[in-house]
Design goal:
By secondary structure, the protein is α/β, with parallel strands linked by helices. The protein is about 45% helix and about 10% strand. About 50% of the residues are buried. Bound molecules: adenosine-5'-triphosphate (ATP). Keywords: ATP-binding, DNA-binding, Helicase, Hydrolase, Isomerase, Nucleotide-binding, Nucleus.
């Protein structure tokens, strides 16, 4: 195979660039070297650029000669032109581009159409008319379209393959391009099973050149891509661009614990300081893991006068399109947007040149994800900032999520008696945590080393080439070490890991069917060490990881230098996904009781036991509930001081919220199951409300100073409990759902207890994570949406790697833990 780290010389011949021994026959003569001249013409006339950028020219030259090409180049390098120009350089015929993301496709198709290029896209959003036109075009055998963007699922459909057969027979199938090719690799962070099937293309259409492009692939992933696509070994043109994005300033904001109010305030400060320094507003993105955080942060920033909007798949695509347009326009104009608070849905394909900052509200799940997301900044080459908010508590949480997902894959592989899955995802997260924890190694160097560049970190002159004081470590070495002292101590985190270790292993303790051998040897073992290892892992595992490394992989830890620090605050662990901020718990954890019936006007001060009455008649007597019936849950009073002085009259907070509620979630398997599940629930329950047991409930009432009223919280509690009851007590598959949750006995009291306990935890979580009533409402709505998905049994078995999965996983885990506690007889004290 060609060398992986250097630019290889393109094959001297014009075609076929395939092993002579291969049965592969060239389909048609490629262009001669004069094509290079044509390509420059296309670059200038069609795309309006003066010169090729980086190694674009070499790549384009190799492609037009018909070579298989592998491109690994940093974000923003201009990979798209590497296949778009060759596609137009061909006299006729079509280039098929497999792309994983709708947003990515849309973005490229729109831009090409603006340049009058004949391009089509086939995905879940293609209208029947468009599809008909595409089929007609392809079935002619001589398509007029020059590029076809398509999802891997659609490409592998029998119908599409039949059409491509026809095009191939007519020698009009010019090239097969796999964008974001790391999705192919099992070792890649965004692995998509359908991508694996793309290997058949080489066999089915021999002689058609293949191009694979990615910005994030370690050497292992690179090899896997080349093998999986069956790209030519001997005549592969492989380009590995240097990874460094020298204009990006990387910074870690160390954080003692995730405390949303303070964190949002910090982010506001950060952005407004940046605006003040530049003398004008700048474009930026704040990445958040959860949709509700996006909503709330955007509302918070708007309340403070910034032009901010949320962006996630829970919003209607028309709203998302508008947000994208307004953001591209910028905040200075009428209705423009400066800051987008987004999940990873706003990532690949976002190509705004002047994004001046990327903030990570929480820790991404992989190094590659972090690199991709920060890659949206500074694409015009001017300086831009990338700030990651990092706390060890959050790192613990992400480790658990990634570990759970890995365990699931181990389990699935074991059931299918297949080879064990790679530990890639777990290793990638560990590297990202290493990166965040390092306080003595340049961040640019760490990134490039992660992607396989050999760098001697002791060679100061070399390091300077990568980073000229463009990261916090190089610019403020002492300050970084001081700031890092804010992190929670290792002892505290160690105890959390121990706790997580217990949680993750409960199936085994309970005699579950999880394969022990795999589990202890797989990646799960590295994240949550096996029992025998716990003693050492707690005290040395994190320490080992947090070591002051000298190999570029180390953690570098100020805490180690200064000795262990006591935990900053005392806290009680409630459940995964439920973050108890220390301040709340210290404030006394005052509990208020109310009746858990559907009635919401109960006194909040006294504990009331209501006589059991017919729910329907109580409902009929309650005017308030009539309102709730038609409008399930909305805070009665919105905190107007927190409302946005929005400049966009067409898109107020409330409208955005309504859009959110009515969200028509876009493609993706989980999303489809979301819909199916919601349909199931709504079909099953003709009445919007179900009868709840009439018992007392205590809400945790921390003295947090938040303006979230008791009544609002009670409504939130009831809505959450209603939904849980609909799924678990009245759902079509209620029995199987309980089985999946881990409760096989048919004990109504136990079930009620479990649901009540689960509701309390979910409600408390929503309260803890919210700053305002609006945010609280949005979180409850989000949780309700996720609970509904549990009605679909597949969600329990096949969690997809989509943005919602970890939130669903948290709820699943919470319910399972509560069931386990109940089975062990601990669940009575609810
Ligand atoms: N030769 C060139 N001269 C100037 N600008 C260019 C050139 N080639 C591409 N660009 C611009 O660079 C930007 C990034 O291009 P593109 O989106 O293709 O990058 P990418 O490598 O695919 O990035 P990512 O992996 O982050 O999606 C685009 O705005 C594009 O117009």
């Amino acid at each position: 195979m060609a060398s992986s780290s250097s630019l290889c010389t393109p094959p001297p011949v014009s075609y076929p660039n395939l092993p002579p021994s291969s049965a592969v026959k060239p389909r048609r003569l490629r262009r001669t070297p004069s094509a290079a001249v044509d390509c420059h013409f296309i670059l200038t006339k069609v795309f309006g650029h003066k010169e090729f950028k980086g190694k674009q020219k070499a790549i384009v030259d190799a492609a037009v000669k018909g070579a298989d090409v592998f491109v690994l180049a940093p974000t923003g390098m201009g990979k798209s032109l590497c296949f778009q120009i060759p596609a137009l350089a061909d006299d006729h015929g079509i280039t098929v581009v497999v792309s994983p993301l709708l947003a990515l496709m849309k973005n490229q198709v729109t831009k090409l159409r603006e340049k009058h290029v004949q391009v089509v896209a086939l995905n879940s959003e293609t209208t029947p008319e468009e599809k008909k036109d595409i089929i007609k075009d392809l079935s002619s055998g001589h398509p007029a379209s020059r590029l076809l963007y398509i999802t891997p699922e659609k490409l592998c459909s029998a119908e599409m393959l039949r059409l491509l057969d026809k095009v191939y027979e007519q020698r009009e199938l010019n090239r097969f391009v796999v964008d974001e090719a790391h999705c192919i690799s099992e070792w890649g962070h965004d692995f998509r099973a359908e991508y694996r099937r793309l290997g058949m293309f080489r066999e089915k259409y021999p002689g058609v050149p293949i191009m694979a492009l990615t910005a994030t692939a370690t050497p292992l992933v690179q090899d896997d891509i080349v093998k999986s696509l069956k790209m030519s070994d001997e005549h592969l043109f492989k380009v590995v661009h240097p990874f460094n994005r020298a204009n990006l300033y990387y910074e870690i904001q160390y954080w003692s614990s995730p405390y949303p109010v303070a964190q949002m305030a910090e982010i506001f400060e950060y952005i407004s300081n940046l605006h003040a320094k530049r003398g004008r507003a700048s474009s930026g993105i704040v990445y958040c893991r959860n949709r509700a955080t996006c909503d709330e942060l955007a509302a918070y920033l708007r309340g403070k006068g910034l032009n901010a909007r949320p962006y996630h798949k829970g919003l209607k695509s028309s709203v998302l399109d508008k947000t994208l347009r307004d953001w591209e326009k910028g905040g200075s104009g009428d209705g423009g947007v400066d800051v987008v608070c987004s999940t990873i849905a706003f990532g690949l394909g976002i190509d705004k040149p002047d994004v001046r900052y990327i903030i990570h509200y929480d820790l991404p799940k992989s190094f590659e994800g972090y690199y991709q997301e920060t890659g949206r900044a500074g694409r015009d080459g001017s300086p831009a900032k990338c700030v990651l908010f990092y706390s060890r508590e959050d790192a613990c949480k992400v480790r658990k999520l990634v570990g759970m997902s890995h365990d699931k894959r181990v389990w699935a592989a074991d059931s299918a008696q297949g080879p064990p899955p790679s530990q890639r995802a777990v290793d990638s997260l560990t590297s990202l945590i290493n990166f965040a924890e390092a306080d003595s190694i340049c961040r640019h160097v760490m990134i490039c080393k992660y992607f396989g560049e050999a760098i001697d970190i002791h060679d100061e002159a070399l390091v300077k080439k990568y980073c000229n004081r463009m990261c916090d470590v190089c610019k403020y070495p002492d300050k970084v070490k001081r700031r890092k002292l804010k992190l929670a101590s290792e002892e505290y985190i160690g105890s959390q890991i121990q706790r997580l270790e217990r949680d993750v292993r409960y199936d085994d303790e309970e005699g579950g069917s999880r394969p022990l051998s795999r589990q202890s040897s797989g990646a799960g073992a590295s994240v949550f060490q096996s029992k025998q290892q716990v003693g050492t892992s707690v005290n040395s595992g994190w320490k080992r990881n947090f070591r002051d490394g000298d190999d570029g992989e180390g953690w570098g830890n100020a805490n180690n230098v200064n000795g262990p620090k006591p935990p900053p605050k005392i806290r009680t662990y409630v459940a995964p996904g439920v973050v108890q901020t220390p301040r709340y718990m210290q404030s006394g954890g005052l509990k208020r009781s109310f009746s858990a019936s559907n009635e919401t006007n109960a006194s909040t001060e006294t504990v009331r036991k209501q006589p059991k009455t017919d729910y329907a008649s109580r409902l009929a007597n309650s005017g308030r509930l009539q309102a709730l019936r038609t409008k399930p849950f909305r805070p009665p009073l919105l905190n107007t001081s927190n409302r946005a002085p929005t400049t966009d009259a067409n898109c107020t907070d409330v409208e955005m919220q309504r859009e959110n509620e009515a969200a028509d979630i876009d493609e993706g398997e989980l999303v489809q199951t979301d819909r199916a599940a919601e349909d199931t629930v709504s079909r099953r329950s003709s009445s919007p409300l179900v009868e709840l047991p009439d018992d007392d409930v205590e809400l945790e009432m921390p003295d947090s100073g938040k303006r979230i009223g008791v009544e609002v919280r009670k409504e939130g509690f009831i809505s959450l409990r209603q939904t849980l009851h609909k799924v678990f007590m009245f759902g079509e598959h209620a029995t199987q759902t309980w089985e999946r949750a881990g409760l096989t006995i048919d004990d109504k009291d136990a079930k009620n207890d479990i649901l009540k306990c689960t509701t309390r935890q979910l409600e408390f979580s929503a309260h803890t994570m919210s700053v305002s009533e609006e945010g609280y409402h949005s979180r409850c709505q989000g949780t309700i949406r996720l609970i509904k998905t549990l009605a679909n049994l597949e969600v329990w078995d096949h969690r997809q790697m989509l943005e919602d999965s970890e939130e669903t996983a948290e709820i699943v885990q919470l319910i399972r833990e509560t069931c386990r506690a109940r089975r062990k007889g601990k669940g009575k004290a609810i």
